[in-house]
Write a structure and sequence with these properties.
The complex is a heterodimer of chains A (249) and B (209). Chain A is built from 9 helices and 9 strands. By secondary structure, chain A is of the alpha/beta class. Chain B is built from 9 helices and 5 strands, in the order ααβββαβααβαααα. The longest helix of chain B has 36 residues. Classes of the chains: A alpha/beta (249), B alpha+beta (209).
């Protein structure tokens, strides 16, 4: 098997077709405790990262938005508030277990009618061209097998003038942060995973997949190559997370 | 491309809300669609402002001169932070402003961006109410206005008191009436000298002729 047939799954190399299956099993295993773990692992800071992302959507009442790999629906919820009853938000995820948690949460909060939930592969989004005013993907792109295909697919479904927001773990740039961050993510995260979610392996994969994800500049170039214009990125928490943005021009 | 700081994104979000709320700003943004302006704030940073789909986008730009030369922008403007702030606020004295800021490229587009930012200026009370609610925002806004008015009044009073002390107590400075009297004397002396000079010139010409 040639190298081009294989892709990363954390620090492991797996056949291209197997990554989606393995990612699906990771998230099926952690879906129930996903939100609690996010709060614990990030000390709640993931809420600020998501709030920052939502503050930049530029969505207005009546517009449409797509949250790709939206999981438990944090961003979809914020965007539903922005587009109002006349607008529409689609929450999609390749993992039905995660999507179920997100769908139930939105229903429990009273969002019905202007929200759709569907299992969809980010590489082949099942929507017409030029369908959405804004598209978000938070902590999802890293798990996609063919990131370039996913970005092209997102570009296709965005309306001209629409904005893409990619919130994802990245490479720390603040001086002295990297060794602390490495120690935390390779030692503390799997331990938290074992204690809280009874699944250390999934959280080891999380730490490894972050290291294998393209850094800020590489991802910016990928976003540009997919056809987006006016691209830029914001480092959050010293570069632990970066928000990449681009418009379909 | 350098990372765009989060504060710039916050400014962009504020201005975009201002654009949506103002018909004049919306029309300006529509006119500026697909244009870009580079702003070099001396000693601080470089920013690329562009309008796409009626929305303003602000991004950090590479401050190097090579980057400025190769970047595709319709206009660029360079100046000190203070001069650019005054320009953005519309507080423009053309003859002095020209010396403090340098505009290259399409000056009409640069001016339209200035007008866009002035028209999209956020209502701070409205923005505050999004965070703390309407009533506390109103109270905080009134408190801020009263504090600003008090600060202005205090500065004026302090200036008057210092001037009075220097003129009346320490006598380091002369008072305005004394100064006016002195200046009038200087004017009178200059006029007398001018008249004497003119007479002497006339006498010289008569003697020669």
């Amino acid at each position: 098997m040639s190298n081009s047939d294989r892709t990363d799954f954390g620090f492991e190399e797996v056949p291209w077709a197997e990554k989606a299956k393995r990612v699906r099993s990771v998230f099926a295993s952690v879906a129930g405790k996903y939100d609690v773990m996010n709060d614990l692992m990030s000390f709640g800071v993931h809420r600020l990262w998501k709030h920052f992302t939502l503050s930049l959507t530029g969505l207005r009442p009546g517009q449409t938005a797509l949250d790709v790999a939206g999981g438990t629906g944090d961003l979809a919820l914020g965007m539903l508030r922005q587009v109002g009853k006349e607008g529409r938000v689609v929450l999609s995820d390749i993992n039905s277990s995660m999507l179920e948690v997100g769908r139930d949460r939105l229903l429990d909060l009273g969002f019905v009618g202007n929200v759709e939930c569907l299992v969809a592969d980010a590489e082949r989004l099942p929507f017409d061209d030029n369908s959405f005013d804004c598209l978000t993907i938070a902590f999802g792109l890293r798990n996609v097998t063919d990131k370039a295909a996913a970005l092209r697919s997102m570009h296709r479904v965005l309306k001209p003038g629409g904005q893409l927001l990619v919130l994802e773990f990245s490479t720390p740039v603040a001086p002295g942060l990297k060794p602390l961050y490495d120690a935390y993510s390779f030692n503390v995260l799997p331990m938290l995973g074992r204690w809280i979610a009874d699944d250390a392996a999934s959280y080891r994969y999380l730490a490894e997949s972050i290291r294998m994800h393209p850094n800020q500049e590489t991802l910016l170039e990928m976003v540009r190559t997919a056809g987006f214009g006016e691209t830029r990125y914001h480092n959050l928490s010293g570069g632990i997370v970066a928000l990449h943005r681009g418009y379909k021009i | 491309m350098p990372a765009t700081p989060a504060w710039l994104a916050a400014v962009e979000a504020l201005l975009n809300r201002g654009i949506q709320a103002s018909m004049q700003a919306t029309a300006l943004a529509r006119r500026l669609d697909a244009t870009a302006l580079r702003v070099d704030i001396e000693g601080l940073t470089s920013i690329r402002a562009s309008v796409t789909g009626g929305r303003l986008a602000l991004a950090a730009a590479d401050p190097s001169r090579e980057s400025a030369a190769h970047e595709r922008v319709n206009a660029s403007i360079k100046g000190s932070p203070f001069a650019l702030l005054r320009l953005a606020a519309g507080n423009v004295q053309p003859e002095t402003q020209a010396a403090r800021t340098a505009v290259r490229g399409d000056a009409e587009i640069a001016n339209s961006y200035r007008e866009l930012i002035a028209a999209a200026r956020p209502d701070l009370e409205e923005e505050l109410s999004r965070i703390v609610g309407d009533l506390p925002a109103r109270r905080l806004s009134q408190f801020a206005l009263k504090t600003a008015a008090w600060a202005r009044q205090a500065r004026r009073t302090a200036g008057e008191n210092i001037a009075e002390y220097l003129q009346e107590e320490s006598r380091d400075l002369v008072s305005r009436p004394e100064l006016d009297e002195f200046l009038q004397g200087v004017d009178a002396a200059r006029e007398t000298v001018d008249r004497v000079e003119a007479r002497l010139t006339r006498l010289e010409q008569r003697l020669k002729g």
